[in-house]
Specification:
The complex is a heterodimer of chains A (114) and B (114).
Chain A lengths: L2 E4 L4 E4 L4 E3 L1 E4 L5 E7 L5 E7 L5 E4 L2 E4 L9 E3 L8 E8 L8 E3 L3 E6 L1
Parallel strand pairs in A: 2-12
Antiparallel strand pairs in A: 1-4, 3-9, 5-6, 5-10, 7-8, 8-9, 10-11, 10-12
Chain B lengths: L3 E4 L2 E4 L4 E8 L5 E7 L6 E7 L2 E5 L6 E7 L2 E7 L7 E8 L9 E2 L3 E5 L1
Parallel strand pairs in B: 2-11
Antiparallel strand pairs in B: 1-3, 3-8, 4-5, 4-9, 5-6, 7-8, 9-10, 9-11
The chains are: A mainly beta (114), B mainly beta (114).
Amino acid sequence: GNSVTQMEGPVTLSEEAFLTINCTYTATGYPSLFWYVQYPGEGLQLLLKATKADDKGSNKGFEATYRKETTSFHLEKGSVQVSDSAVYFCALSSNAGNNRKLIWGLGTSLAVNP
Amino acid sequence: DTEVTQTPKHLVMGMTNKKSLKCEQHMGHRAMYWYKQKAKKPPELMFVYSYEKLSINESVPSRFSPECPNSSLLNLHLHALQPEDSALYLCASSPLDRGLQPQHFGDGTRLSIL
């Protein structure tokens, strides 16, 4: 079946450090891949997406590239800020008729210190 | 600003109470979802509505009763809940088309069962 494996946290970084959160997946067919972010006390926000191999999603300085050969969708940011402290979820969506279930990673908690 | 609006933001109820959670979206999305989320865990899918019809029930106990009055509204009726039902309840919506579009989430209702 489909699955998403995400690196375990928590991750603690200093401001302006480089961030990588690893995400790998197992899926049949051609899934879409997403990163969602959840700030403390809030709901989930779509951070970026990619719908086919070699697509690069980007938003707010974050990037992730859909790598079919390594079945990966790692999240990166060159210089993190305190305001990036949140929980990050990698997810995939596999077409199953009209009902698209999201398969979630377990989430990675990021804390950025000033 | 989230385009999926959930009310109330917080709800405290006793185990014998009846209450309802409400969700509204005006993006023209024809799929709507209810999720339950425990702290720092990925959301767990509860129900999916497609074209206002219930298409997925993930074996949710009958004390949770969903309703979709029209294409913009989604309710979750609660009755005789248990303390373990305390969680963040998230509503989401997405287009129903041939592409694999992301789900858009509200900020959730934080539910506490006394």
